[in-house]
Amino acid sequence: SDCAPQISGEGELQMRGLILIEQGKVALGERPTPRPGPYEALIRVTAAAACNTDLEIVEHFIMPPVQGRFIGHECVGVIEEVGSEVSYFKPGDRVCVPALTPEWRSIEAQQGWATFSNGGMSFDWGLMRDGTFAEYVCCRDVDMNCGKIPDEVTDLQAVMVSDMISTAWNGLDNTHFRLGDNVAVFGIGPVGLCAIAGVRRKGAGRIFAIGTNPKGIELALEFGATDIISYKEGDVVAQIRKKNGGPVDVSVLAGGNGSTVSQAYRLTRPGGQICSVNAFYDDVVISPGDWNSGMETKQMTGYQNTGGRWMFERYLNMLKYDKTFDPSKIITHINHGLEGLEETLWNKKKRECLKSVTILD
Q: Is the pTM of this model over 0.85?
């Protein structure tokens, strides 16, 4: 059930956060502080991150129900209160709050597709309840969704697991490739950079990173890319085919627009894999010649972040034990306090911004 507002003798207790007032306009405001239901937890937010999807929600109004609620879907925090049926977490635990929180007690979960539970509303921040740009959030099914943050992992590292790492690595977890396979990653934004780190750790051979952002290039090379390909220097497919001596085994779509899908089909060998972890907001058109009229036996799968405590704690443990990958380096802009939330959102419009975060505690 949705978290109910917390009631006191004086009326509803209020919390502050960044509210979507109308298309293109946000402002700090107050909303009722929720009280957790039986399987839920009230979490005090200690760091919140902005995503391109937040910009789409605010600027292009792609999710009208968010209007009047706090925006945001990426955060970490400390548990303040748990519901009567919560057994794994307790007040005081540091937790990574997933961008998607499935209903694990659903038919879709039994079918193996918890992400699409109860009509596909796993992404409920701002839609069914207030988002994460706030003093507090109330997470549903907390025992099954949140991940406990190891002491060795900082808030800035853990907030990158909330969406960027979990989106990229969940797609890679479900994409088969062999040790030494050559991989192309389209996009060197936060998800693309996390994908590069992931394919390197999964055993890829040559890794082509496609993009032009200077900071993205620097981190792509640090995280494991062997070659940087600029779309400003001509057709990226032709460039990579020439360098690689032919097509790649796997393409990862972590950025770009609808035309990028067609490029991935042209770049990937017959029998190869195309893993899409990108959100497309324009039409995707694949011309017959790019995939031999659909008969070239290439498998493309689009992966939504499935969420789940088991997955999140695996990825957090990766950061605990693998000190060679520090995702907090992707954070280029840091603000402090509730007053910094709006700047954190609009920072995402800056080319030099990879990831923007507000520290609340």
A: yes
